[in-house]
Structures are given as structure tokens and as C-alpha cells.
Amino acid sequence: MERQLILEDGTVFIGEGFGSELETVGEVVFNTGMTGYQEILSDPSYCGQMVTLTYPLIGNYGVNRDDFESIQPSIKALIVREAADLPSNFRSELTIDELLKQKNIPGLAGIDTRKLTRLIRKHGTLKGKITGMQADVEEVAKSLKAKVLPVNQVAQVSTPTPYPSPGRGKRVVLVDFGMKHGILRELNRRDCDVIVVPYNTSAADILSFHPDGVMLSNGPGDPKNVPEAIETVNELLGQVPIFGICLGHQLFALACGADTFKLKFGHRGSNHPVKELQTGNVHITAQNHGYTVDPASIVSAPLDITHVALNDGTVEGLRHKTAPAFSVQYHPEASPGPEDANGLFEEFMEMMEQFLKEELVNA
Ligand SMILES: NC(=O)CC[C@H](N)C(=O)O
């Protein structure tokens, strides 16, 4: 069925609807990964966003049982050049169309995704609506312009109650701001005894689990929309080793007195080069973020910049000057990949071990 994507600036893309027939409004962003559509559409950090994929053929290896990054995808819509309806892969269980129908997510195929991406790069992320052909373009564009998108996405995707993911090793409290399964998978692989807690858990409640370390997950939206978490991270500083990823990194920065701002069109893809300043090593990383830490604000914060993006020089990693705490803007858990930065989980394990030793010495 013919459907259209209307943007707030009045641009229209007419294509073929697939998946759900729902009408939907969201922030339109693009991801440049050549593979990984299943992980992208189930990454809770995309909550409230419509994602266009620049790779032209999506769905060609189907959807499998294992590669989801959350149980319930919270992406608003998927926009593609071509949706493959005959996937070919031994793991494939569903087509992309079947999955989107099952999860009630609209898809739009057959549009010029290159043109859409260039538009977003030029004007910055735009609000958009996927709707039927009868909609009045001018009216929709006007109402989109005036529309304020919801800001409570973290509350929507975080777990409502704590739950354990047991292991015999280090006890890690994982604060769930919209966690990708990949983070839990990496901690479990290292035999961590993980307790996943809601985003608004207090520092006292986190410490009551006697953790060896605290992990701050990725998540959707503006980090400034979760002030309670900034407060919590601030209280935890110095008391327990902390490792933050993406939204967790931004919350860590804000908790240390630094600032964040919104990028024009963000970083979303699987091949973003990041340089580690100390060694000069470059890692190719998976990224998905619209906000970033302001480097000018770090000068007066107790933080060192450890990593920078090679494409645009933005901050990609931070370390606290005195407390055992560090964070990265990119995704060491990869999912879909690449896995260059996976060693950061080892660094976290070592940091927890070191902290424990120092505590024993000082006891
Ligand atoms: N993947 C993430 O955690 C994204 C963080 C934040 N929502 C941003 O867009 O910058």
C-alpha cells in the first residue's frame, strides 16, 4: 500500500508501506551500518525515533531468534530503500515485514534513502510522520513543527523492578536506562553476578547490593531528562568503580559537572573510528547517539578525555581524575559489531579487582 513520510519542513517521500499500518510520529535519524538491522531496530536507545538505513537492501538475511537487543523493540518506524521479502540465511525465522507486523511497527520502503539522509545531514534531525496518502502535507508539516516530542523515553524502556542475572564472579549493579542485551551478555560472559535495576534507583539502594562495580547502560533521549540519575551517579563517585556506556557516559559526565549538547545529526553506524589518546590506537566502533559531551566543559571538571572521534573530533571517552570511573560514548558491547573495543570490559574487571584490593589494604 502506498504511504508517505512527511517531514516538518514539508518534504514528502512516497513509498510502499510494510510492517504495521499504524500512523506514527518521531524524530527521523539515519544509520549507516551495512548490516545489523535486527540489532538496530531492537536497540532501546532508538525509542521515539524513526530510523532510515542507508544500506539499500534490508532484510536479506531475515530475522533470527538470537540477535535481539531488547524483548520489545521501541523504535517508531523503519525506513528503507528495499525490504527483502525472500531472506536467505540458515538462522532466519521471519522476514522483516513479518517482524514489524508482529511488533506493530510501521515500515516504509521504496523511498530515496540517500536523499533523505542528505537532507538530515544538511538540516539536522527532523520530525516526521508516516501516514496514508490522504493526509494533507501542509497541515501535517505545520503540526509537526509545533509538536514537542515526549521526553520520558528512559522511564518507558527501563525495567520497572530489579532482577538478577546470576554469576559467581564480581557483583555488578547494572543501571538500566534502556539497556541493550549486549551489555548484560558481556558481563555474564565474564561470570559477573549482575543485578539489573531501574533507572531511578537511589545510590543508597544500589550500594545496599554491595556491588563490586556499577555499570551505567545506554538509553534513549537527552541525558538531562534524567536528573535523578545524574544525582545518583554523583553520589556513587569514589564509593564504587563505575563504567558508563553512551547515555551512561553522558550521565557520568553531567554528574562530574561537565555539560552535554545535541549534535546536528548524531553518530549512528558500525564503522566510526575512535582514537585512544594515550596509545594512539584507533578502534572502529558501533555508535548510536544524538547528544555529546561538550569538551569545553571538561576543563573545569575532574575528568580527562581519553578518546576522540576521528570523523568530527567529538569526545568519545572520559576517565575521572581521582575516582575509579570511566566511560565511552560508543558501544564496546558492539551488537552488531565491530568488536574492536570489547577490551574495555576487561578494563572494568581489572578496575573492580584493583578497588577490592585497595579496600582490603585500607580495611
Ligand atoms: N545509545 C545511547 O545510549 C544514546 C544516548 C543518547 N540517547 C543520545 O542519543 O545521545
UniProtKB/TrEMBL annotation:
PANTHER family: CARBAMOYL-PHOSPHATE SYNTHASE SMALL CHAIN, MULTIFUNCTIONAL TRYPTOPHAN BIOSYNTHESIS PROTEIN-RELATED. Keywords: Amino-acid biosynthesis, Arginine biosynthesis, ATP-binding, Glutamine amidotransferase, Ligase, Nucleotide-binding, Pyrimidine biosynthesis. The keyword Methyltransferase does not apply. Small subunit of the glutamine-dependent carbamoyl phosphate synthetase (CPSase). CPSase catalyzes the formation of carbamoyl phosphate from the ammonia moiety of glutamine, carbonate, and phosphate donated by ATP, constituting the first step of 2 biosynthetic pathways, one leading to arginine and/or urea and the other to pyrimidine nucleotides. The small subunit (glutamine amidotransferase) binds and cleaves glutamine to supply the large subunit with the substrate ammonia. The gene is carA. SMART domains: CPSase_sm_chain. Composed of two chains; the small (or glutamine) chain promotes the hydrolysis of glutamine to ammonia, which is used by the large (or ammonia) chain to synthesize carbamoyl phosphate. Tetramer of heterodimers (alpha,beta)4. InterPro entries: Anth_synth/Amidotransfase, CarbamoylP_synth_ssu, CarbamoylP_synth_ssu_N, CarbP_synth_ssu_N_sf, Class_I_gatase-like, CPSase_GATase1, GATASE. L-glutamine binds at residues 45, 219, 221, 247, 250, 288, 290-291. One of its GO terms (molecular function) is ATP binding. This is Carbamoyl phosphate synthase small chain. Belongs to the CarA family.
